Amino acid sequence: MFNMTNLIEENNNFFYTAPVSKEQARTRIDKFIADSIPQFSRAQIQRLLESGCVFADDLLITDKNFKTREGDIYQIIVPEPEEATPVAQNIPLDILYEDEDLVVVNKPAGMTVHPAAGCSSDTLVNALLYHCKESLSGIGGVARPGIVHRIDRNTSGVLVVAKNDITHRGLAEQFFVHSIERTYYAVVYNVANPLSGTIEANLARSPYDRKKMAIIKTGGKTAITHYQTIENYKNAASLIKCNLETGRTHQIRVHLSSIGCHLIGDDVYAQPHKNSILLPVEIKKYVNSFPRQALHAFSLGFIHPKTGKKLYFEADYPSDMKELINKLREYRL
Q: The dihedral of CA 176, 301, 150, 99: what is its sign?
């Protein structure tokens, strides 16, 4: 039976987390949710799926015939009583590529991907509704049209949006089988030892703080991050390149923290006063006051669902990360 302690509030949103046991694997997603959260009727669950309220990490699940997998943890967002239709807003977008099927954007830090409780405007969806008019996939539901995957509000970088349902399904399948190429850059405290390698550690909600993800020995979801140290700032900080084999919630932030490399500016997983001991006094205050996690989704590669062509996009560091890196380079080894 579903444990009510898995009702979580985060950033003014309420959602359930439901882990899949061995016995529940290969179950239809609507039945799994019904068994896990008995207070939801089957009709309500169908509406949740259709409205884009069910996620496996950053992957949107809308097909009621979707089969669960052992170890997966599904997030079921609890919408407000009546989900408001997002309003189109003339917000400038950094468009990297666009055709009749999809659009690739460079999302700025501070912009939420889609509307939710407590954040109904100034999101990427609001901007896309203005830019794309009515040409967005309906799979994501009223509040999340076109949204195939997400990156954190305070993470910048490349994100792809679907303009029609065929493209949406094609992209979602690539995310599901982990064939998407994703490269991130992170500026962190300390330096990794070894300088490059692979972190393979399962992730699940922390049993001590439900707003956090944590590495667990058994259960959870497989998470694999390949990392490489690009620049070393006298062992006090470093620039790390991460290639994701999987895309779990907070994966890079938790994995790098597990090897002592907490992201600069991360107000959830990093403790500046403990991690900045080696920083020179003249730069410590600047680094410790960096206003968001220093994480940038640098590149995204995938197969175009309609044409079959391989597409690859890059977005340079935003100005705040450039400034942070340049200041730290004065102390580069």
A: negative
φ, ψ for residue 188, nearest 5 deg? -130, 160
The CA R_g of the chain, rounded to the nearest whole Å, is 20
Which residues participate in catalysis according to the annotation? 152
Q: Is residue 110 part of a domain?
A: yes
Instruction: Determine the 3-state secondary structure of 91 from DSSP.
Output: coil
Q: What is the CATH number of the domain that holds 34?
A: 3.10.290.10
Bridge partners, 14 (sequence order): 9
- 283-330 residue pLDDT tens: 999 999 999 999 999 999 999 999 999 999 999 999 999 999 999 998
Please give the biggest Cα pair distance in the chain: 60
- Interhelix angle for 42-50 vs 29-36, to 10°? 120
pLDDT at position 152 over 60: yes
Q: Does a structural domain hold residue 218? A: yes
Whether 185 maps to a domain, the answer reads yes
Burial of 82 from C-beta contacts in 10 A (0-12 / 13-18 / 19+): exposed
